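Design review, sub-item: ligand-bound model
Attendees: FS, YL, KQ
YL presented the inputs for the copper (II) ion complex:
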Amino acid sequence: MKRREFVKLSGVAAASTMLIHPVLQSCMDNMNMNMGSNTVIVVKEGAFTSPLAFPNVMTSNFSLSANGNTVNLLNNQTASVLGYSGSILGPTMKIDKGSNVSIPFQNNLSEETNVHWHGLLVPQNMDGHPKDVVQSGASFNFDFTLNQRAGTYWYHPHPHGKTARQVFMGLAGFFIVNDDEEKNLNLPSSDQELLLVIQDKLIENGQLNYSPSMSEIMTGYTGEYVLVNGIYAPTHAVATKYYRFRILNGSTARVYNLALSDNQSFEVIGADGGLLSQPATVNSLLLGPGERADILLNFKNYTVGKEIYLKNKTFSGGAQGQQEFKIMKFVVNQAVDETFTVPSQLSVIQPISTASSSKTRIMKIKGMMEGMSGNMDGNMGSGMHTINNKVYDLDRIDETVEAGATEIWEFDNSNGDEIHPMHIHGVQFQVIERIGGRGSLIATEKGWKDTVLVMQRERVKVIMTVPQEKGIFVFHCHNLEHEDDGMMLNYEIV
Ligand code: C2O
Ligand code: CU
Ligand code: CU
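KQ shared the predicted structure:
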């Protein structure tokens, strides 16, 4: 067993009540796995003394290479990581809506990779589909025109079976689209606009360690060190002003319930696909892997010297939600007068009418426990997570959708005991309804989305209009352990 500290929490699925395949039973015994409980690693809070850092911003002459690098992650030990064009993570790419983007990409890794532009509406051959990999040493030119609304998008690798490890090792970056509508709101910008990617890492002897066991494929691989922009337990100085935070959960599996240490409320102004129509005031916000939140934090009422933490608050969602921990620190170091007020209207989001939907598709998403009873073909160690009882096959088209069609897709986790952040490539969708579980929509789900959290016992319905342009895209669980395990299907626009 690895030297890690686990919390064992009362779980959900009772193994004794199930018929367990003998191969699986011995596997479970070997792994010393307790199927009656969920395991999740205890997060260690740091000293919050390292200064927060930000990746370089690229606004033209884009280029990208995937490289092995070394950085100091913990205690001045040199850790081997992966990154785009630099240390860990990748440059923030920033463009205006309508721009033509050309990004030469060079793969300097010792294995295949590719780049997927998460949330961007690009043609299938530019989308980083798992069939389109760039071999070690090879290059590829990404070329597309972005005609979509302003938003906080991101990019990461997508080679099937290798996505989780490559992202975990450091390959991820922001892709920001700006437009006039957003500019006219005069939201906090420059040093008052902070891009934060939150990722938990398992670090042993100063090195990143990606080696999920079977039970960690089930719950998702979690780590004890929570990094923001690649920095463990960072601190950042702020003035008594409004700040705009664009937050990406770039973790492979961990869900965060973001809140402030003093429980001050904040304004949610945007989600995956850009601004909401109106801001929503909340005290906490759930953010699953792959999801983004755009929020405004007001430091106006604090005095100089005050320390405020961004933290993870407990939430109901199994083992993952049971620990409260701090993520990063803000220190107020300057008192200033500021006149900014939060706009009451941000944008206009026209709800897609359910009457315009030509088809409803049910996607039964199954975790390891449900997968076992329906999928006992003995392929242990992979294929335990399924969609409509299928494990991902690169060459199989699972769903065929008419070009330009509007459809309702329902992700059905009503029997499930695992959390699945479901993501669809090629579109932005609207969330219509959540049945069971939490039973309602949260603030970010009132906006355009490309990834939606489907928690235990929930069914979530989304509506979307697929592009006119034909092509093959994937949809999958953005718990990257689940995705690599096969919880992904192809859909073809015809
Ligand atoms: Cu962010 Cu298919 O992924
Ligand atoms: Cu994506
Ligand atoms: Cu999943």
